[in-house]
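call fold(seq) -> tokens
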Amino acid sequence: MHRIVLISPLILLYFSSIAQPNEMNISYDSSAQVHAFDSTAKLRVNQIIITGNRKTKDYIILREMHIKAGDMIKIDKLNYELEKAKEYVYNTTLFVEVTVEPLVKNAFEIDILVTVKERWYIFPLPIFELVDRTFNEWIVKHNGSLDRVNYGLRFTDNNVSGRKDEFRLNLINGYTKQASIYYDQPYANPSLTNGFNVGAGFEKNREMAYKTDYNNYFQYYNKPGFVEDSWFVSAGFAIRKAIKKKHIFNLRYSHITVADSVITENLNPRYFNTNSSGKGFIDFSYSYRYTDVNNILYPLSGVSGSFTIQKRGLGLRGGINMFSVDGSYNRYW
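ret:
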């Protein structure tokens, strides 16, 4: 229950038309003179109050709001501005519920109350998966052999320090061995506009696709032991000065080694577009993302789009070399 002191009845008339679902208790002087409603009048935001967040830092929530303390808001635009602030905070994906309400201080000033309910951030997920395409193939062709399964753990924390930083750890054993670690910090500088990410991992496979046949089906090679080893390190930098736009730069170095038998004349002597059984290469990508939707998880209105350029390999011809451009535009009704 919030106590709100209302000095001018014209403000009362307006706020009664935009009352939030959890009704506020408004008291005012009934003997005051009633003035004509002026929709062009402005209210000053005195302060923004954050409640309900146990782990997420207040300044992370405030950073995602386009309304700041000291702003002047037209009375007839207040409901719209509060709804947009609610959308921006909810679209961080840190909360399952968000409400944004005005608390009237006097005829010229309001406080804004932001109430959030945090989601669950930590997900330790056990893994048990079949290598084969279907359960029936695993039973009939391989007699349900446990040698053809992968097991392990995927651990994710989507808000490690309360700054929307994400940590992921994958540990997989069995037919495939895999380990990877990843950390993303979107608010790395004091002004909360730049971020970074780092990652590393390795993988060992007992079978690999070494080419496609004339029907474009993968041909697989396997033998006792591991036939493909790979590892990678990656780093990225993000720029997000506003709320809707984001620029992302990523750099990754990967190295893959395959069994010598793969690069023979019988299989694929130019698996890496060279006659080598191992190859290291660099991936560089730039992405631009724009998001202005009412609900980032299930949009019903708004627009979003992205544009990505990716280059694999340093050269323009020969070796491992790829260039791609990808883009999308979405509008929701």
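The two ends are 36 Å apart (CA to CA).
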